Amino acid sequence: MAIQDTSRPEAPSTTGPRSVSRRDILKGMAVVAGAAALPTILVACSSTPTTAPGGGGGGGAVTGTVTVGSNHSDPGELKGMQAINAAFMAANPGSKVVMNTVDHGTFQNQISAYLQGTPEDDFTWFSGYRMRFFASKGLATPIDDVWAKVKSNYTAGFATSVTGDDGKVYGIPVDYYPWCVFYRKSLFAAKGYTIPKTWDDLKALCTKMQSDGLIPIAFGDKDGWPAMGTFDILNLRLNGYQFHVDLMTGKQKWTDPKVTTVFQKWAEIMPFHDTTYAGLTWQKAADTLVQQKSGMYFLGLFMTSEFQATENPADLADVDFFPWPTLGTQYDSEAALDAPIDIWMVTSKSATLQADMDTAKAYMDFWSKGSTQLLMFQNQPGLIPAASDTDTSTYSDLQKKAASIVGAAQKITQFLDRDSRPDFAGADGMQGFLQKFLANPTQDTTGLQKQIQDFWDALPPATV
What we know:
CATH architecture of the largest domain: 3-Layer(aba) Sandwich
Shape: globular
């Protein structure tokens, strides 16, 4: 089963033109990432620079070779990787890092064959279902010994994200980014709009924006994945974290009346969305917010890159965001949201792994430090460092706010296509089903929900 991150589509080319993905636009986002005191995901961060960590996690320097498979192919991320590898070798004289960089889309499309063939020792990947899947198939090496040394640099929320079905740890969290509702401060001030706190507030604000000639909610679903974010947040607010994650993994049924409620709630606000959504990429939808043609936009933190692209500092300084409003259920207190977490893992079939296992694990240890993650952040600031000892002294108010919103969340999800099977979440699955709903949001969704459940039930056993 080829693993595809449908939320970050890219063409399989590192040299020729390709479509712009969520990963692409993260580079250069110097004002939208950071870390602050987070009760769930992060613990209190240092405000002073940390010293570059040693590679041995307290066990002394290593002198072997570690091979790494990386999807950090964009220019900023590649520079970050080069800086990190150089720092690792400087901290471990005599060691060597050999890196194989593959563009993001190809890396994900070929990950299954890669891990079963002759992979590098360590590799980039995602937490949640995507990590647990390969761990359960014996294609990843548990790193509980490394985690025992570094876990104090993470909270229970991060620990859960890298724990496999067998209770063992398989990854080191390195960055994340939240999904929120974005808006322009100047537009809200000029129109006298206030931040909606509840569902009724949101609908009232949308009605007012519509009467003012604005598109209340920017939306672009040409690529299929953006709509997943809205389903996620509505399901989380209406039915809670546990039902949501169980639904993603087949423990709950798509025919459940709780899912019906999600679609019914969604239908209430669809008239406030951009009616041309089916032909718009997320970038084009974000541009309507930049141009003050729309009032709000629910998407990942990366969308602020469209404000940065204007090269007018005033545009970027004008963007702000707030968490999705409450829906008056018992699950409002969870303040749950999507905040995908990227990780590093150790393979199990590398030809060189056993000879240099200490070096492979030392590299994982090295990535667990805020000083290491900052080397990536300095070149790719759109990725919020995950380590709690990250230096926050250079972060803007917007960066700290992004981290604070994630910190207020009692429950964190990874996004529909990461929390579920890739063959279920793709264009033939949930992407297509959600687009059927969007085309007629007031429909009786009983038949659609049955189609979704039948599709799930027809999937083959989850094998690689």
